[in-house]
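== Sequence, structure tokens ==
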Amino acid sequence: MPTLTADLSPVSMHVKAQGKERTKAREDVEEKMRIIEAALYVAGRPLDLKTLCSIIGSRSERKVHRIARMLVEEYKRRNTALEVLELEDHRFVMQLKSGYSDRVKRLAIRPLLTIGPLRTLSYIAYKQPITQRQVIEVRGKHAYQHIKELIELGMVTREKNGKDFILRTTDYFADYFGLSRNIQIMKRQLERIFKRHGEETLPLSLKEDERREMSEIEKAAGESGTK
């Protein structure tokens, strides 16, 4: 009776090859997920799909979106003090869960902005586009240094306009504070923040419930067709 070994050998080799391909594909996805995790950790702010694509070397936003969502679910399963969230505009952010942030905030490193530049930044963000002269008239001559610092941090851009300059906030500013990149929607969000805090100044960072509220404002504006 002939053996089946010779007949099954090619099939067996094909199955093994498929198994190796699946293992390699899984390991590749897991490695990309770890890279996204590292990027979100280092950035400390929301990152969009274009940025994530650049970091992991992929041209497919759809594929990167799927991997980033896998990371969101992975953090839900881990049940740790950290969470990864997807925002309304498909940006992703890693942050402390709200139940832990108040307990450890005193251990945080020196904030990126001190109160003076933060007030100048808040004014620019709410009034933009605004001339540098107008900012100086309201905030005082010390605002020259504030503006220089904000430009160096990448929070504000300055564009020559005759003998003056036009100031605007950047996408980095919006991402850092969890605000919309759409200026009109951002101004609605700022109004809510100012009212909540009782002054026209941004806090050094938004709490989790505030970030969620900002996302809700952006979502509602999108549904109503705000440009």
Observations:
- The first strand starts at residue 82 and ends at 86.
- The beta strands are 82-86, 92-96, 130-131, 156-161, 164-169.
